[in-house]
Amino acid sequence: MVRDRIERIGVVGAGTMGSGIAQVAATHGYDVVMRDIEREFVDSGFETIDASLGRLESRDAIADDPETIRDRIEGTTLIDDLSDCDLVVEAALEEMDVKKEVFADLERVCDEDVLLATNTSTLSITSIASDLEHPERVIGLHFMNPVPIMEGVEVVVGEKTTDAATELAHDLAEELEKTTWEADDKPGFVTNRILMPWINEGIRAFDEGVATKEDIDAGMELGTNVPMGPLTLADHIGLDVCLHASETLHEELGDRYKPAYLLKRKVEAGDLGKKTDKGFYEYE
Ligand SMILES: NC(=O)c1ccc[n+]([C@@H]2O[C@H](COP(=O)([O-])OP(=O)(O)OC[C@H]3O[C@@H](n4cnc5c(N)ncnc54)[C@H](O)[C@@H]3O)[C@@H](O)[C@H]2O)c1
Prior knowledge:
Layout: E1 8-12, H1 16-27, E2 31-35, H2 39-58, H3 66-71, E3 73-76, E4 87-90, H4 96-109, E5 115-118, H5 125-128, E6 138-143, E7 152-157, H6 163-175, E8 179-184, H7 191-207, H8 213-224, H9 230-237, H10 239-253, H11 261-268
Parallel strand pairs: 1-2, 1-4, 2-3, 4-5, 5-6, 7-8
Antiparallel strand pairs: 6-7
Helix pairs in contact: 1-2, 7-9, 7-10
Nicotinamide-adenine-dinucleotide binds near residues 12, 92 and 102.
């Protein structure tokens, strides 16, 4: 059973992602409790939120004024202040020990029917929930950076996650005007499994002198129609976050840089994509 009447949302971590999630939830009328371990991190989260709301207001992109939205967010350093939340999203450091500790604390302070979501980029939802009494209400709710701007949210379903928890995660993301897709609890899910080798290859190409960093980014932007090249995107994500994600994937998946077997096979079969009307998709 998960509670589906959501009024108050807890956010653990007030960094890049946590502050963004708190902001988006408050923008959509939810009361939010944003928790970090030190007051200075909570304050810095509020600074990020103020700056972002200011930019959005100047573009007429928010319905309420920034102050009204900000007033819906309560900052705290105490985990117990999350006890009256109807749902919690964890966005603390990308380290298994930290996540496990946070979820053990959440299980202690939150009611049994409260959905506990993690914003992890690569760590296993099943592992994060493995020491809990109620792993069935743990799910991945993987927001993208910057949260107020990016439309997509990846819902990651752990071994023990119930259908009701999965449905609620999709519903909440949609309430926040996001569009979801679902991934199984496999390393890197959909996004980072594919994105991280791409970013690492961009970094290697730069290091090996294939082109300047500007030309690598321009090549990928103009040549493949992505909005940002790998080096610019890595800077936006945070190089530490990229490193953690890459290390997890490396540990779990090994060498992912060889061409995929299915790619070779499709080429040999003459299924070259749009130009032959068939690649991974079919075209008219
Ligand atoms: N940065 C991205 O582009 C991005 C994108 C998607 C998902 N993520 C994931 O989101 C999570 C957060 O990433 P981020 O970029 O916001 O990191 P960040 O370093 O900006 O923020 C993390 C915050 O968590 C706080 N924290 C650490 N331990 C805590 C605890 N026990 N309780 C409460 N707060 C604690 C830190 O003090 C820090 O303020 C990670 O799991 C990351 O992999 C990041």
